[in-house]
Write a sequence for this structure.
């Protein structure tokens, strides 16, 4: 008879029977009925990072204050989205989620700087974004970076990594 044990899957405990020779991936597919899809999870995570960046920029612009905790929200959003759409359990999901979370945070900072610049120049935001070059973007990000940003980026990475995998 196969060994019975309790495993947490999709935030609920289930009793599963496993043969000892089953790989962890097979066990995961057996318990959840789905397989990993890094591409789908990555695309969904990218969309979440873009939504998070837009939200970060809007909150920063309308409050006239950069709220560092928004980084944690971006990381959490990316991680949960990747978990939902990628069904992943491997570390690759965590690493990709972490990279996308940092991308979302950096893009949020850049978009908010562009919004403030457009406001001060009395031009539409799209006019500023249309003239953006990689060297200008890098300069804007360097000028606006502070050591506390590194802390919040780290917290975003942690939130994304921890929430990106379906089974830990």
């Amino acid at each position: 008879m196969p060994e019975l044990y309790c495993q947490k899957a999709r935030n609920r405990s289930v009793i599963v029977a496993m043969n000892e020779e089953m790989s962890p991936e097979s066990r995961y597919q057996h318990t959840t009925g789905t397989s990993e899809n890094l591409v789908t999870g990555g695309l969904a995570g990218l969309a979440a990072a873009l939504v998070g960046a837009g939200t970060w920029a809007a909150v920063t612009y309308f409050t006239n204050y950069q709220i560092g905790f928004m980084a944690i929200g971006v990381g959490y959003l990316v991680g949960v989205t990747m978990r939902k759409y990628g069904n992943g359990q491997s570390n690759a999901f965590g690493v990709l989620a972490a990279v996308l979370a940092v991308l979302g945070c950096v893009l949020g900072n850049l978009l908010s700087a562009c919004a403030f610049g457009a406001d001060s120049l009395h031009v539409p935001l799209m006019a500023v974004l249309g003239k953006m070059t990689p060297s200008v973007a890098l300069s804007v990000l360097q000028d606006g970076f502070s050591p506390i940003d590194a802390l919040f980026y780290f917290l975003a990475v942690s939130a994304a990594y921890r929430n990106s995998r379906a089974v830990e």
In short: The first helix runs from residue 24 to 32.
